[in-house]
Amino acid sequence: MNSNASVQTGALAPPASHKKLGLTALLAVAIGLVVSQGVMVLMLQGVGMAGLGFIVPLGLAYLLALSYACSFSELALMIPRAGSLSTYTEVAIGQFPAILATFSGYIVVAMFALSAELLLMEFIIDKVYPHAMPPLTVALGVLALFTVLNLFNIDIFARLQTVLAVVMTVVLLVMGLSAMNSDIVAPNPTLFDSAHWNPLGLGVIALTAMAVWGFVGAEFVCPLVEETRRPERNIPGSMMLGLTIIFVIISLYGLGALLTVPQAELASNGLPHYLFATTVFGEAGKVFLVTAAITATCSTLNSSLAAIPRMLFGMARNGQAFGVFKLQGKRTGAPWVAVLFIAAVTGLPLLLMHDHADAINQLLLSAALAWLLAYIITHVNVIALRRRYPQVARPFRTPFYPLPQVFGIAGMLFAIWNISPSPEMTFSIFAYAGLVLLIVSIIAVLWIKGVMGKPLFKPEPLASVLGTLDKNPQGDSQ
Predict the structure, then answer these.
(1) pLDDT tens-place string over residues 63-102
(2) What whole-number distance in Å separates Cα of residue 201 and Cα of residue 199?
(3) What CATH number is attached to the domain comprising 201?
């Protein structure tokens, strides 16, 4: 994902001749940001817990993802400016939710999810090449490498994003289809017995939060709206098509694993994708998976270190974050303070939790909780802006409004409430996410009241973002 030039809030749209991104390029971004090692792990653990019944929470998570795709599409095309979630939220429900949504959906997620990705890569390489290097050498080394590259504004994956997305998609597809066509004796004889679809009391529906992790991140196409040809078609189309492709591939991937690996081992193994790959491909599976793991982690890390610091840069320029985040390198133009900050919050959990293999699930589910909160705010944004600015042009309008938004909010609240797949993980998941979000909230309140001198929940005028006359001047009084 070439995020370096595309996430700066409030930039003027380029001439139409410079709009080079079509559906294929955006589809690569949508799929490439979603598919990661965390997805490979959590989806297999989910099918290990629920068997074929995992298709129920997976289907619900897919529908929830389509709901956020509708909301982001409507917002991005109504306010067609390169920017982050804070841009939409400040004109919908105010400064505090804007800061909370952006930190919750991106900075906090980086803190948890990128750390988990690096730990997964570390564990996979150590599994294949035991004790070849001291602990955390690979994880911290890769983090340092991509931090330096982004400080120099070098995005080595920018031109390869389409290729990387295709590679990761093919990896999951090949694993699933190869398993389905293998001669391995089926290890789960009761696989198609529907009596085993409800092992958790509430039923497999309680695993929806775990399944949601397979579909988060497609909205990263929205900051590219100014560089997109026919955005009214390609922005929503790339997200919805990408999410549909991911749903099909995850379903085949999970089915292949159930046909070849004992269900209990998938549920309990910390590296189920390693177990799956070696079961189907033998020794060759190790090389196959190490390649996929390094590719997925490096692509996700690089894209995040390119995009998220620029969200901080845009917020600082709007007065929503510390002014130091506006500092740029004189030669490179990179927001170097913001890059170092994201690298630091990514590295901190690595140092604190690298000895705990079970920390990966806790980090990923804490990240899912934070991301779901940001998606709930996104749905609220659409409802608020429909009421305050009913006459403003919306090139994309959510079908059957407000049902997708209501469904999305209710479903995501349910997923947050059932975020933990086991009682012993519940406290740590809510503690990790809750503590960080509490700190962010306190800082946001002090910043908005003490530095910005603005109300917490008073929306900014839409014209202040669009740079045009408000088409509905009376809207602010509603």
Answers:
(1) 999 999 999 999 999 988 755 688 889 899 999 999 998 8
(2) 6
(3) 1.20.1740.10
